[in-house]
Structure formats: structure tokens, C-alpha cells
Fold these 3 entries.
Entry 1:
Amino acid sequence: MKKILAFILIGSALVSCRKEEVGVTEGPNLTDIYGTFSVVTALAPSQPTVDFAAGETVYFTAETSKLTDWKLTITGQTSGAEKIIEGVGTTLSQSDATWDGSTTNFPMFQAEVCDVSLTFDGETDTLTTTVTVGAAKVNQGFVLADFETGYLSGWTNFIQSGGNMDFNIKTDATSPQEESYINMQGTVNWDWLIGLLDFNATAYNETTLPLSDNASNLYFNALVYGEAGLSNSLVLFRFDEDENEDGTFDGASEDQFQKEIPIDWVGWRLISIRYDELDGGGTGDGAFDPDKLNKVSVLHLANPSSGFAKSGLDYMIFTENGPLQP
């Protein structure tokens, strides 16, 4: 009986060993990691022209003989906009190299021809192609201001009488979205406030801005510019709620929320703030009620002892379900 049992155990062990040996090896093939690098399939877009405004996307394909870290860079020939997609592998495909028209580095893309390059970490090869944007991506949300049509009737401002003051709309190639933005600069040595802009609901023929009442699902987004060599600017975004909906904000009985942003970077940057993460409150009910918002103000501030300050502002938009994906 003992001999039979031993035979069964030995047989079972042999079967187990045989299963281990027959299976496919786990992980990448060693040739994929240590082999000689070569291009198997050239870089190509899934379609030559893409209409992002219609919800289309475009993806890129390529194949190499060796597993590498790769970087796909899409650059607008007219705008200079840049989108970067990175990954690891021997192939690019729809699953990891799809572009939805969004931007990594400002400005945003226009309807334009784009240069596409694919580079590989540790390799000298660069693959190139082009793709044409037939129509740029359209962002869903309520646009408070993009300055493309100048000052709206109903916007108001207050500008200090300091030195080198400039709170004017500029139209030039440095705009991060389309062609225009507002410049904010000046030297005010007696006050923190350099100037402010009020975006009143009446400018949009509304008593309160047309926004959701879900403060945890609503985001305020803005593109803000930081000047090289200067880090003294502050931008304060302020939100006045007309809680009794009588058409005006009463600071004695209604809430005012805010968010102060130190501008400690150079160039354009996206600022996104979830509405229920704003600071402040006031003398109202203390609840976040974005559907009762009747004015957004932008204040450009700087320590009066710090000298000249400069910043820029563009494309303020409220979005739902997440921050702006420019």
C-alpha cells in the first residue's frame, strides 16, 4: 500500500513540474528589452484630418523592435500649441496614443496643421508625421470671459492711478486661447490693490449667472499669466452671491467667497477651483450657492513696497463634472 501511495505522489509531482515547464513565460521577452532597436512600423495618424469640435479623436500607431519609454509630441504649426503623450512599450495604438484635441502647453490649438514627432528614451531615432486639425476642441461650460469681442457692456472696473498702468485687452500671438486676453499691470506704492474687474450677471442679461446649484460638481477655471522676473503679483477671485435674488449683492447679509492665488510661475497656467472649496463666506447662510452668483470679480494685488507688478488673464469658464481640460 505504501509503494502505491509513493507512486501516486511521485506521479503528481511530475505532472505539476510538467505544467510549470509548458506554460508561457511571464513578463516581456528579453529581446524586447535588450535587443537592438529598430523601427518596425513608421509613425502614422489614424486619419489625416480631425474635427475635434464634432467630438472626433485621432490616434497614432507605430511599432519598434525593442521596449522603450516613448514620447509623442504634437505641435501646432500656427499656434505653437503643444500636446505631449508618453508611454512604455513596443507599439503605439488607440489605447495609449489617442489625442482628443486637448493641450499640454499653452496656447490652445487652432484649426491648423500639426507636426507630430515620436522620440524614444536612450535612442537617437525620431519618427515624424503630420495631422490637420479641421476644427479645434470646444470646451463645454459657461464662458464668463475670453476677451475676443472686447469689453462687454455690464462689465465694470476700477483702476488705480499709479505708474505704468495697463488694464487693456491685448490681441497678439501670446494669447493662450484664440487671439485676445487682458493685461493687468502697474506700480501702486500706497495700496495693495492695483486694479479690479467686475463681471456682473447683468452683462449676460441675467440676474444671477446661469450655473448649476451643485457646488461640489462645479469648477471655476481661468488662464493666468506670470511675468518672467516678477513674482510679486497676487490675483484674488471673488464671488458674490445674491441669496435673496433681488438683483444686487448685500455685503451685510449675503455670502462672498474668494480664492487668492500667488503668481509664482512664468507664462500661462490653468487655475481650476471647485466651488465648494472657495474660502470665506460672509454674513449670509454660509452655504455654497453658485446658482445665486451675481458677480465675479478679479483683483490684481501686490505688496505696495514691491514695485511694478504684472499679470494676465484669459478664458474664465465654469465647467461641470471636473476641471477644464483645455
Entry 2:
Amino acid sequence: MSDPLYERLQRLKRTRQVRGEEPSTGTTAVGVTGGVEAVGKSSGDEADASLTRLGFRSPSSGIRERRVFRRIGADAQRIRRLCEPPGGYLVPGDGKPLLFFDAETTGLSAGAGTVAFLVGAARVISDDTIEVVQLLLPDYPFEPEFLARTADLLTADSRLVSYNGKSFDTHVLRSRFLQSGCVWDEPHQIDLLYSTRRLWSAVLSDCRLSTVEACVLGVERELDLPGSEVPERYFAFLDTGAGEVMREVIAHHEQDMVSLVRLLAAIEDVLDAAPDNANASVMPSDPIGVARMLAPYDVERAIGILRRRVDSSGPFGGGPAAMVMLAGLLKRRGKHSEAAEIWSVLFRYGCSELAGVELAKHLEHRERDFEAALAVCEGIIGVCGASTPSLDHRRARLLRKIAGSPSS
């Protein structure tokens, strides 16, 4: 199978051979590419020294490892409590340690040729401190060893917490493990991107982690660079051996994991504070999103949030979406008449076809008002401009009931 990174490395080697360069030469600036100063290949000792200045050590012959400790205050204590019974809304509280995981890769697609070159995990070690471990792939031939160390770091007896990790980071790792013939017993994963979208997508310009950091967590990065520039920095490192070109990548990666710890604590705080967002310690969230997240755990609290949203500014309040959700939760709790009142309002104003269908069901099966239910079905067809097989079936059944025939 073709591997773009391997092919690129081979091209670099051929280029040096044409120029008459040895695989390891002194460092001499030769130009600037993509904002990164290009230098000649450093010697092995010089490359190791440059990585050492960034805090990396060589626990084995190939990979490089960096460990740092960050004090983050009360958020660390909050996370420790979540791991214990009864847990939180996103964390089961089963005693499994949480690993806040992130990976930097050679491309922004999850294709087979994309390689994870920097993998890290943060864990809480005290009531105010976390430990961050970063593994760096110094060259492509060491990938099997790098993957084996990654498997040791991200063990199955832990629980991963990521941001878009389910659809990208772990997908890339899974592909590399498969191609390398290495084994990874992948842990269960909590992806905070989905919860973030539910809580803040309505109030943020986008849900990139940098946006969430700035607007929700109040975090301002000192050393950072756009994610699109990260692969080029790594390729510059492979070409030159100069660890300094990776300084901002390392800082970016470390901060991602620290922010994941803070974000999980913030999400749990928002859900704890609902329905009174004023008690939350972070940016106010979308009440509809909060209700959607709370519904599987506490239907009554979710209903309370939606009632306030609907009743606070007229018959539609937070909009048809809030009313549809509220009616559905009321139905789940057996409050069918209240749900029917909401469906009736939505249907009358043509805001929801679903509301019309639910209203027709209520009128037919609970009120036994077949003519009213038939009128609602006819109204749905009039609004939509066409019928559907399910509506045709319902109309036929209602006509038989009105005529006194046995129901089908």
C-alpha cells in the first residue's frame, strides 16, 4: 500500500544524494518554507539535544517522550470526583481513570496515508495537578515502536476523553495499527465535540476547540499556530532534525489536552447548574441543548428548562424546536393532554408536520375523536401539498372508524 510519508522521506533522501549531502550534516540555514526556517540536517546528537531542550527524553531507542505537570486548580478535583460513584452526566463514575487524549497527524484527512506523529494523554494526579505525557515519532522507521508505546499509554482499562477523536484521531491510529500489524485494545471514548455542539453551537461562531477555549473557557494561548500548519512543521523537523521547529506544535498539543480537562469540568458544571444558567461558571449555553442532554438522565429537569424557554416570550418562546421537544418529553411522562395542547398550537400555525401527526394520533387513540383526527390528516396533506403512505393508511382507517367499520 502506498504511504505518502514514506514516499516523501524517500524523495528527501534522493534529493540529498543528488546534492552530495551525507544523511547527517551540520546545521546551515538554506531558506524559509511555509514560515519555517529550513536548515540542513542536524547530526543525531544535535537533534537529540534540540529535543532535550523541549523536554523530551529517549526512554527507548526510537521514540521520544515528554512529561510535564500542570497545576489547573479546582478543575482537577472536579475530574477526580467524576471518576468515583455516582459519576457525572458524561462520566459513568466506574473508577476507570480518564485520559485526556489528542494526536497530531501528517494530514487533515483520516486516509490510510495519514500518520500520527505526536500522541499525548493527560491525567489528573492530585486535586490541583495533571500530568501530560507526549510521545513523538522522530522518524518513520520507528513507527511500530511508537505505536507499541502508544498502546501502553492509551490502555483499555482507562477511558479516553477527546475532541473530535472518535471521527479523526482514533480513526487515524486505528488505521496505522492495522497497517503496521500492531495490536491496540482501544478504550471506550468520550468525545466532547458532540456535547459542545449541543450546548454552545447556537451561541458560538463555530465549535473549533480554539473558539471554545476563548469564548467558553476564557483561555488565551501564548504559543500557538493554526492546525493546518502542524504537518508542515513536522516535515521540516524530519528534513532538518531541528527540534526548535516543533516548539509551537508541542505547546499547541499540550494545551489541547489541558483544555480538554477544563472543558469536561465546564460541561458537567453547566448540566449541574441547569436550569439556572446564571449559576454556571462559564459562558451561558443553549437551553434547548441543555434539555436535550439532560433528558436521558432527568426528564423533569429537562421539562422545566423547556417550559421556561417556551413560556418566557410568548406561545413559541424558544421556537418550534423547543415546543416539539417539550411535547415529546411530556408525552414520555404520560402528560398527554399538555403535549396535545402544544401540538395543536404548532399545527395551527403550520410550524411542524410532526406536531400534526402527533396531534392526529392523540385525537384518534386517546380522545376517540375520529372526525377531528381526519381533519388534521387532511390539513397535513394540504400544507405539504401531497400525501404519504402512512397518512393514506391513517386516513383510510379513520374513514372506516367514522363509518362504523372494524379498525384494521
Entry 3:
Amino acid sequence: MFERLGIVTNIWAKEIENGTRFDDLMVEFGANGFRDMEVREGDYLRNSEFGSLIKNLEEAMLDYTDAEFKTLCDAVWDSDFTIDGFDLKKTKHAALFKEIAEFARKAAGLTLSYAMSHPWLLKPTNSEKNTQKIVIAKKLAYMLCPIRARLRLVDLDTEGEIDESAAIANLKLYASLLPEYPMIFAVENARQSAVLTLRLAVAGGAKLTYDETNTYLADGTTLNPPEEFWSNVKMDNLTSVHFKQKAEAGVLSEVGEGYVDFKAIKQQFQSKNYTGDLLLENAPTTHSLTDALNSREYLLGC
């Protein structure tokens, strides 16, 4: 099970800040067996060379219809840069798409998804701007992996009482956007309990990315007992499970002893036939591959 562990790319934040290339880390981790990778938005990503590529891509999107851009995405991952007679090399942004295609060649054999922070639990103050942000994110997610695109949202800001009807309406809208782009749409439990987030996700037509570490507060108490979540969840409601460890000092740089009981999680997987991916999300260091390898070894021993 844990031999197929993947990663969330924010574990590379310190190395990218120190000048390491995003694609070099991607290739290195892939060569060490971490084949599932969630590209997590953030300053570290936007300040990298890959972040510059994403920015240029977002600007180029405006020159194409939704259908045309989808064809471009498919062509990027085609070995001849051509699909249905559409030649990528003859587009207005041929140099940009050639660069993206070169990135795609490096990502061959990997499954890339996309994740970003977004206040999906709140009613938006600007509906048009809010919708456009999700459309762009969905297009980026599709570009990263047309054969298994996935977009994850995590709300790191909303606190207090939740307007559940507004949150569910948001999810239903987001899930309905770009129906011609096949995609898994998911949200993650963050400041709210996993049980509440699961209920909203199911009602809104979204999958759940579960991170049990987020359930634990600094003192080791929980927003909801993990047993309560596992008794309520169905495996087909889950698309991904994140792994990191938390102790009194905070999130650790390697998975090891702490608040989260990984053996108990593994038992849940085995008894309920979980088929989604498993993603490591350690605290960033300047030696993230060593941390990831040690973490995988620990989890394999569970």
C-alpha cells in the first residue's frame, strides 16, 4: 500500500526558494518511486521557473475558446504535438506550448494533479471573479494530466459558523463548470472538522481529500475523533489521503511518532478497500527527498 506513496509539491518549498528547479525535483522524486504528485499552489511555486510557465499559460488561455484550449492540452501530451488535425506548432503561442510539452515529457509516467487555497465555504463577494478563478484552475488541472485531471480546493481562512447552504451551492457550481473537461473535483478538510467537510462535499457533488493531521490541534485534541470520520465515510467519497505527522511542536519534517495513528488508518484502508492515492505532505526542508524516503520506510513498517 505505502509503496505507492506520492507527494504534495509544497514539501519542496525551501529547495525551490534556494534555486532548485521544480522540474528537476519532479524527475528526481519520480525516479525514486513517488509517482503521484499534487502540484500545490503557493508563493514557492509562483516564484519558480514552473510558476512563470503557469503565469504565461494563464495569460494565453484568454486567446482560446474552452474547446480550443482543451484540444491544446491534449496535443501537449501527444508525442507528435498534433491531435485531430490540430498542430500545436502552428498556434499563436507555439513557443509556450512547446515549453509545456517539454515539461510533459519529463512528467511521463507521473500523475499530476492541481490544488489551491480557496474560500469555498463562504458566499463569494464577486461571483464573476470567483467563477473565473475556478475555471482557470480547472484548465490548469487538465493541462497537468488530461487522462486523470483533478482539482482540489482547501479553505484555510474560513472560521466560525459555516453557512452550509452557501458552501454546498459553491461546490455544485464549481463542479458544473467546464463539463467538457473530464475531472475529479475535490475539497480538503482544514480548519473545519473532517465530518463536516465530508458532509458538505457529498452534498455538493465533490470528492474529499482527507488529512487526519488537520483534525489535531496543537495540544493533541481533535476537531472530531478520527473514529467518527471513519464510521461516516464511504471509500468512494475519497479521492486522496494526505500523510504528515503532528506533535506538540507542529507538523514534522518526517512521518514518525506523533498524534496521528498511521496503523489505524492502514487498517481502515484494508477493511474498506480504499483505491485513491496516498500523498506525503511533510514540513519543507532542504533535504525533502531524504525526508520522503524515511517517511515511506516508516509507513511501510506500520
